[in-house]
């Protein structure tokens, strides 16, 4: 009859792929974004975007402070004069990033901004602005990372059960941007500086009307302190810059096309696919895949796509590591595993028997030896591959017939051994008959494959597992003598 296919027991290969999938899901979903933010920060600084200058900073520098004194002492008319100049020049929106929480400066700012739809005042989170009347306000707080660097922003801050829009979002919306209002963190997008423009236009030039109209027309203007006493933050380039310049970067980021990001489910799916690819490719290909993903993040960045390359590369490296662990385990098991059948070999049998021999007086060991006849004829007629097929069929049948705690080994070229733990004489005989029945009627094409069975049970008089094997051999010899007498 035709031999059925043999299914081996659990091997490392059986667990590598499922373990890799679980590991990829953990890395993609449960762990923090890892080094993706640092990668994007490096790309942001190395490859800034070329874009039309849409935001202008008007700086209250030391010269302006020398002319007009501290900002807290400025009259409403000075602010109004500057705002009139900016509106007349065609500014799309005007933001005043000034100390609104200063009791001395707040009244003048409110009076100057009152009724002006294009003007936005920067406030602190939770700061009451009810007295502002017809004045647009936004939270001017900047988000600092653990290393005190401003790399990201949100469009709103949570204030109880409502959202407070940010100062930059109010200006960007007035400038035509359509960025959702939420607390999601977004990466600040850096742009190449325009060599033909000053970092900031002096405030006194605005008051005196000394700025060409083309410098302001159609742009968002931010007015802030750049002279002494200015608030400073550390930006993506790790340098201290005036706070108003950072607000300008936030507005610029929102006026540009947003980055394409990957939702969590898609990140998890990509992580699983990368893990599976690394495991299937085997060898060192997983590490090559990791480097390829990191390299792919560069052109995708230029296209405005934030690839979570560090997360995906980690999945690829972990996949390669799982393959390496699998190979190490396989190499260590070669000394105790029969490659043809997947069963333990004679060395594995002796190790298992010796480990159990210490308690054999309380838990007797049983041994069943099965010798296959007809295998050499199969090899001669059909080749060694056919012989291996017979061996796999035999081990498969014995594996199904043995008990749950019984252990199957290949004892010799044509022999198998089954080690039974904690059995009686009756249980040993029952299992012997069951194993013999499992191999009855086995043929390969026209060649019959027969089996002779011997068994032995350990006794307190035995000193080692070797004596148990010798007892099984004596039982086989007695069985052959009995069969010869009958024939």
Verbal overview:
With 487 residues, the protein is an alpha/beta fold. The protein folds into three domains: 12-29 and 265-334, no CATH class; 50-255, no CATH class; 337-486, Reverse transcriptase/Diguanylate cyclase domain (Alpha-Beta Plaits). Helices cover 45% and strands 16% of the residues. The chain is built from 16 helices and 18 strands. The strands form six sheets. It has a six-stranded parallel beta sheet with strand order 4-3-2-10-1-9, sandwiched between helices. A hairpin with a 2-residue loop joins strand 16 and strand 17. The longest helix is centred in the middle third of the chain and has 25 residues, at 309-333. The chain starts with 11 loop residues before the first helix and ends with a helix. The model is unreliable at 1-10 (pLDDT under 50). It comes from Deinococcus deserti (strain DSM 17065 / CIP 109153 / LMG 22923 / VCD115).
Descriptive keywords:
transmembrane; 487 residues; 6-stranded parallel sheet; 4-stranded antiparallel sheet; 3 domains; diguanylate cyclase activity; transmembrane helix; CHASE2; disordered N terminus; Alpha-Beta Plaits; alpha/beta
Percent strand: 15-25%
Could you tell me how far the N terminus lies from the C terminus, measured between alpha carbons in angstroms? 28 Å
Q: What is the 3D form?
A: rod-shaped
| Average predicted confidence as pLDDT | 85
Quickly give the structural class: alpha/beta
Layout of strands and helices, then pairs:
Layout: H1 12-30, H2 36-46, E1 55-60, H3 62-68, H4 76-88, E2 93-97, H5 106-113, E3 119-123, E4 136-139, E5 152-153, E6 156-159, E7 162-165, H6 167-174, E8 186-187, E9 201-202, H7 203-207, E10 220-225, E11 232-234, E12 240-242, H8 243-255, H9 264-281, H10 285-302, H11 309-333, H12 346-357, E13 365-373, H13 375-382, H14 384-401, E14 407-412, E15 415-421, H15 425-438, E16 443-444, E17 447-448, E18 450-457, H16 465-486
Helix pairs in contact: 1-9, 1-11, 4-5, 6-8, 9-10, 9-11, 10-11, 13-14, 14-15
């Amino acid at each position: 009859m035709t031999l059925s296919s043999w299914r081996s027991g659990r091997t490392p290969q059986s667990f590598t792929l499922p373990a890799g999938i679980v590991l990829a899901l953990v890395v993609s979903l449960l762990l923090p974004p890892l080094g993706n933010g640092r990668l994007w920060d490096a790309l942001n600084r190395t490859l800034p975007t070329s874009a039309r200058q849409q935001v202008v900073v008007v700086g209250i520098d030391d010269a302006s402070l020398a002319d007009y004194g501290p900002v807290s002492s400025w009259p409403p008319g000075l602010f109004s004069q500057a705002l009139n100049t900016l509106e007349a020049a065609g500014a799309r929106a005007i933001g005043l990033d000034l100390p609104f929480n200063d009791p001395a400066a707040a009244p003048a700012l409110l009076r100057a901004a009152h009724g002006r739809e294009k003007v936005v005042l920067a406030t602190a989170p939770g700061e009451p602005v009810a007295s502002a009347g017809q004045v647009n306000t936004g939270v001017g707080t900047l988000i600092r990372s653990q290393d005190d660097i401003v790399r990201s922003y949100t469009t709103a801050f949570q204030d109880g059960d409502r959202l407070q829009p940010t100062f930059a979002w109010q200006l960007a919306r007035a400038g035509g941007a359509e960025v959702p209002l939420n607390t999601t963190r977004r990466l600040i997008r850096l742009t190449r500086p325009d060599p033909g423009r000053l970092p900031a236009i002096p405030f006194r030039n605005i008051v005196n009307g000394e700025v060409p109209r083309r410098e302001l027309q159609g742009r968002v203007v931010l007015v802030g302190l750049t002279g002494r006493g200015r608030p400073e933050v550390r930006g993506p380039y790790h340098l201290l810059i005036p706070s108003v310049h950072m607000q300008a970067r936030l507005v610029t980021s929102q006026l540009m096309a947003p980055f394409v990001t990957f939702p969590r489910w898609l990140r998890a799916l990509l992580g699983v696919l990368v893990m599976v690819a690394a495991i299937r490719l085997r060898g060192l290909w997983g590490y090559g895949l990791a480097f390829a993903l990191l390299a792919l993040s560069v052109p995708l960045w230029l296209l405005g796509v934030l690839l979570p390359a560090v997360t995906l590369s980690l999945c690829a490296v972990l996949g390669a590591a799982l393959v390496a662990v699998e190979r190490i385990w396989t190499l260590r098991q070669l000394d105790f595993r029969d490659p043809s059948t997947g069963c333990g070999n004679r060395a594995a049998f002796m190790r298992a028997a010796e480990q159990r021999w210490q308690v054999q007086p309380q838990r007797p060991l049983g041994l069943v030896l099965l010798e296959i006849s007809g295998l050499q004829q199969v090899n001669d007629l059909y080749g060694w591959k056919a012989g291996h097929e017979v061996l796999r069929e035999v081990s498969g049948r014995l594996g199904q017939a043995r008990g749950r705690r019984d252990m199957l080994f290949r004892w010799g070229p044509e022999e198998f051994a089954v080690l039974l733990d904690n059995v009686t004489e009756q249980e040993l005989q029952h299992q012997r008959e069951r194993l013999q029945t499992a191999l009855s009627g086995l043929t390969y094409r026209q060649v019959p494959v027969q089996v002779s069975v011997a068994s032995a049970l350990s006794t307190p008089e035995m000193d080692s597992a070797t004596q148990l094997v010798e007892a099984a051999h004596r039982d086989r010899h007695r069985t052959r003598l009995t069969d010869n007498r009958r024939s």
